[in-house]
Design a protein that fits this description.
Structural class: alpha+beta
Order of helices and strands: HHEEHEEEEH
Shape: globular
CATH architecture: Roll
Largest sheet: 6 strands, mixed
CATH class: Alpha Beta
Helix content: 25-40%
Protein name: Membrane protein
Strand content: over 45%
Radius of gyration: 15 Å
Number of domains: 1
InterPro entries: NTF2-like_dom_sf (IPR032710)
């Protein structure tokens, strides 16, 4: 099991690569067979699928990183990353302040599980509640 700081650094490096976006580099932080679940229960098999999904939902999107919290559990370090998303919707409208929570499990120096939640679906359904 990696140290808590090592696990947090792996997650931060993954996020930096994801936002570039550089799905090849992002994938280097993920274990083979990583379990990825995005909002709405969307299962994804790779960092490339994450990039493809984000390209379909946003013109562009970045994360304003907030806190990183962790706990040790059954041989993994669980890292919670919180913050906000900012960017543009496909129609060119800008947005910011879109809350996210990501949960990562890190073992053997790689991300073995990733779960993602954010406000995007709510903001798409009811644009009036979105901050911009």
């Amino acid at each position: 099991m990696p140290s808590a700081q090592t696990a947090i650094d792996i997650v931060k490096d993954f996020l930096a690569a994801s936002m570039a976006p550089d799905p090849v580099k992002a994938a280097s932080y993920m274990a083979e067979g990583v379990a990825i679940t995005f909002t709405g229960g969307r299962a994804m098999a790779s960092a490339t699928e994450i990039t493809t999904f984000n390209a379909s939902r946003y013109r562009w999107v970045k994360k304003l990183l907030g806190d990183f919290d962790y706990m040790e559990k059954e041989g993994v370090v669980v890292v919670y990353a919180t913050g906000t998303l900012y960017g543009e919707w496909p129609d060119g409208r800008s947005f910011s302040g879109n809350r996210y929570v990501d949960r990562y499990e890190v073992a053997g120096g790689k991300i073995v599980r990733m779960d993602v939640w954010n406000d995007s679906a709510e903001w798409i359904l009811v644009p009036a509640i979105a901050k911009s």
